Amino acid sequence: CKLHKICVLPGDGIGPEIMTVAKKALSLAGQKEGEEFQYTDCLIGGAAIDATGKPLPDETLATAKASDAVLLAAIGGYKWDTLPSAQRPERGLLAIRAGLNAFANLRPAIVPRQLADSSPLKRELVEGVDILIVRELVGGIYFGQPRGFGTNDKGERIGYNTDVYSEPEVERIARVAFEAARKRGKRLCSVEKSNVLEVSQLWKEVVIRVGKDYPDVELSHMYIDNAAMQLLRNPKYFDVIVTGNIFGDILSDEASMLAGSLGLLPSASISGAGPGIYEPVHGSAPDIAGQDKANPLAMVLSAAMMCRYDLAIPKVAERLEKAVDAVLDAGLRTGDIYKQGTPNTKLVKCSEMGEALFAHI
Amino acid sequence: CKLHKICVLPGDGIGPEIMTVAKKALSLAGQKEGEEFQYTDCLIGGAAIDATGKPLPDETLATAKASDAVLLAAIGGYKWDTLPSAQRPERGLLAIRAGLNAFANLRPAIVPRQLADSSPLKRELVEGVDILIVRELVGGIYFGQPRGFGTNDKGERIGYNTDVYSEPEVERIARVAFEAARKRGKRLCSVEKSNVLEVSQLWKEVVIRVGKDYPDVELSHMYIDNAAMQLLRNPKYFDVIVTGNIFGDILSDEASMLAGSLGLLPSASISGAGPGIYEPVHGSAPDIAGQDKANPLAMVLSAAMMCRYDLAIPKVAERLEKAVDAVLDAGLRTGDIYKQGTPNTKLVKCSEMGEALFAHI
Ligand SMILES: CC(C)[C@H](C(=O)O)[C@@H](O)C(=O)O
Ligand SMILES: CC(C)[C@H](C(=O)O)[C@@H](O)C(=O)O
Fold it and tell me: What region holds the Isopropylmalate dehydrogenase-like domain (chains A, B) (predicted)?
């Protein structure tokens, strides 16, 4: 029996509720496979600001670094929305990504069979969609220097940021994407805006070069504006998408709507060395926090991704994924994925969904 | 009878075909209302590169500046795709936008009644959608300095661009958007990424300040990633959207897919002083160029926008718009909007669509 040290960041809003379910589900699934988890809860986001004044206390980062992996629920809420931006909960998220060098953000956009009808897109377009977006997460315009406020040569006040990538930064994310594509449909689409931006021209050049090492993967290139269209026109065209930080932010959120709901979408942010961060794509939903209404499934699926990628215990991942599939098949739906009038479905609370999951595991 | 001087830029691919239809439709509609048009054809894009070596010859810009308005069809094609990016057709587009200071790009995303079924989104979500995207067009990361290639402090090669806005730049685009909202649904949504970027924080601050002058317009703010989602989740939420250059590029292309086809979407790029540029949202479609298969309707609707905005002859605009409505009602469809099996529709060529339009005008 192996002990896996997990840094647990429940964060804000519905975070603690869904984390409770995920921890228990993970432990149960681990038991069946002879794997044990040791959880260390730490503060991040608004909860950390309230307790320590900082969105990412040093102690949290230190614990995260000393762990095998990080499970993060969600951060932010109305309460902290009026703070100056440098002190807001989101900064904790950016800081832990950078602190762990979690440069590769993997976001699957999968339309679960049981929910294909809740997509805003027509069923025939989204049924069977299975896209993996690989977003660069610790570079680009999110972190580029110089940045700030200043004055231009006309004496007018300006705000500015720098979108910048270096060759090694593009190379390492490209390799993650090619490797992922190799294990899937063997098609990679690199998304940039090289008809306008130099940073994108470098991106494209390096991706093409790295691609030489992956002759078995079919590489294509698409401008970001066109990609935003094609995701709607023909989402099944895509297998793996690789793109920079800001384009990935936009595209992965757009792609997540193909599924109709964020309630089932996990994500992994990994460095290749050291612990990765596993978190649902959805936010902290402060409007329903503490009401036992949240959907814990994306959190549970994030734990499954953690088992697969960082912990290399795919059997535990499978148990979790199968349990999620089973509760959906059984018709259980939390508020976010419940659609009145759909036969054989039942509206349940977060804790009820949890109990059903535990039973299936 | 007034004479309107129009700088005509047929450009590449299907450009010349659709421009022929638009010019004739415009002249006919003008005749009925006692307005006359004088067309001066100039080179831009690939056609200009072939003839002069430059994507925007000085003569074209000079003629454009001396005109009342510019009608542009489409630029680009496979032939020029391998040129170094600084010499590609797109550069002509960026250069004429900057040269005319056409800072406000207005892109309506309307789902035409007759085509609601061709949207990838479910009919109930898109029926009645009527969004106006106001995109800043001559600033931001498209034009920000410094930009280029270089070396970072680790000696690695980098590519970089600067996303920058000044207060006056944001203020003028915000005013265009508030004015537009005032004439429509009185709701304006400003889209940025102020939780991460300083350039967005300045953007938001200035938009809020300008908003004080428009107490009758309801102002909201949305992060770009969320906007990319909400456009799919609930497109009817939006009335007018105002955003920066790159976010507007992405969002307007995404929004254009709500209509299912680009074939009917016009755009205006205006400076408030001097001639604006009117062009369809679609591209030059080199694959069907010269085959009389193109859809001329977006080009005709762009001419209508020109009549409304720059030339202040709304009656001519109405005649054009009514003719487009009529040919769609009559079931005429070019290949891009034709769906086999739809009752009472007929596949027609570009020239046939033109003849039908002329008859209706
Ligand atoms: C909260 C925000 C800073 C973050 C981002 O932009 O990266 C979020 O949108 C995400 O995608 O995880
Ligand atoms: C061709 C390209 C440079 C252009 C842009 O990015 O502005 C196009 O996508 C557009 O939106 O008009």
Answer: 5-357
Q: Is the shortest distance between the CB of A74 and ligand 1 below 6 Å? A: no
Fold of A111-260: Isopropylmalate Dehydrogenase (3.40.718)
Is position B214 annotated as part of the catalytic site? Answer: no
Contact A347, A306 (CB under 8 A): no
* pTM, rounded to two decimals: 0.96
Question: Within a 10 A sphere around the Cβ of B326, how many other Cβ atoms?
Answer: 15
Ligand 1 pocket residue status of B229, Cβ below 6 Å? no
Q: Does B97 touch chain A (CB under 8 A)?
A: no
Ligand nearest to the CA of B89: 2
Tens digit of pLDDT for each residue in B172-216? 999 999 999 999 999 999 999 999 999 999 999 999 999 999 999
Q: Which of residues 202-221 of B touch A (CB under 8 A)?
A: 202-203
- Whether cis (ω within 30° of 0) applies to the bond prior to A108 is no
Q: In 3-state terms, what secondary structure has residue A43?
A: coil
What's domain B1-100+275-361's superfamily in CATH?
Answer: Isopropylmalate Dehydrogenase (3.40.718.10)
B127 touches chain A (CB under 8 A): no
Residue A182 Cα, gap to closest chain B Cα (Å):
27
Fold of B123-129+140-258: Isopropylmalate Dehydrogenase (3.40.718)
